[in-house]
Task: structure prediction
Amino acid sequence: MALITITSDLGTRDFYLAALKGAIITNSGFVNIVDVTHAIKPFDIKEAAFTVKSMFRYFPVGTIHIIHVNSTDGKDKLLLAVVDGHYFLTFDNGFLSLAFEKMPHQTYEVNAELLENSSLLYEEAIGKVVNLLVKEFQPSDFAHLTTETTSYRLMQPITSAGSIRGTVINIDNFGNAVVNITKPMFDQFIGDKRFTIFANVGTTKEISKKYNDVDEEADMICLFNSSGYLEIALNKAKAVNLLGLKIDFPVLVLAD
Result:
């Protein structure tokens, strides 16, 4: 049975999500649809990219991932990328370049005839593409390789021996801030040295393994999450509120 995930900014209050799912089922019959989230902030391809990049490897090879975020900036194109055996169906709005740090080598533009008479939701075109993939057609059967796509670059950490300057790239539902500093990066530039992490008004001198490793409520805690990124949290409190952190805020790690 085909496995399909949907990540979107469509919400659940309106009919949009139901229309998208209905079009997929109408075209492909009974399929297994997994809702990743429909609470991506409207038009926020950065948040969508972080979400998809963090979750897709937990699904089996061959999974079809639909990313329905910021369709209005999609230049009337549907893109299909193949990465590590997974399919990613989305719009030409820069999402793919943010999710994979550069445009995947196997990026296809869906042929125009599949997009004829599409609504602003593109639900019928998406349903048709999913059906073709479910029937094991190759992307080259209904799309063509392209390099003419919208591409963006995320801000990268600035590193040197004993110093890393990263930025907040995501804020989760618990108010924890995720930073674009990875465990390998930390090991390379800080290693076994003593250090201090500066996150706006908060500081700490250690990396923890669990959220409750600190004793007092609202104490700052830093750890590497399941995706391998540095995460800044407060014990039983929202770090973004008490520390004043926002997306793109700097976070500094300095060896003492």
Q: What stands out?
A: The domain at 3-145 is CATH 3.40.50.10790 (Rossmann fold). Residues 175 and 240 are 5 Å apart (CA to CA). The longest strand covers residues 163-171.
